[in-house]
Amino acid sequence: MRLGGHGDVRRRGRERAAYRRSAPLPDGFERCAAAFDLVNLVGLLDGVEPGARRANDVVARILATLEDDRS
């Protein structure tokens, strides 16, 4: 699993915006979705060797999710 760069983030942002125009979600939806994502991401670390590529990628995604929540 390789995390994308800034271009991927922008593309996902545009996709989310287009989707929200056609199917609006309640306020605060992203925060709830991020909480579920964190639970699932932590589960992906089960049994993974520290320092392994998968562990590094998952930890980076966890940190990005937490940082997004602060914004």
Shape: elongated
Count of separate DSSP helical elements = 3
| Backbone structural class | mainly alpha
Rg over C-alpha atoms, rounded to the nearest angstrom: 14 Å
Summarize model confidence as the mean pLDDT: 83
Number of domains: 1
Strand content: under 5%
Q: Got a strand count?
A: 0
**How far is the first residue's CA from the last residue's CA?**
25 Å
The description of the largest β-sheet is: none
For this entry, give a set of tags:
71 residues, mainly alpha, elongated
In short:
It contains 3 helices and no strands.
Question: What order do the helices and strands come in, and which of them pair?
Answer:
Elements (H helix, E strand, L loop, with lengths): L5 H17 L6 H16 L8 H18 L1
Question: Can you give a write-up of this model?
Answer:
- It is a single chain.
- Helix 2 runs antiparallel to helix 3 (53-70).
- Helix content is 72%, strand content 0%.
- The chain has one domain.
- The relative contact order is 0.13.
- It contains 3 helices and no strands.
- The chain has helices at residues 6-22, 29-44, 53-70.
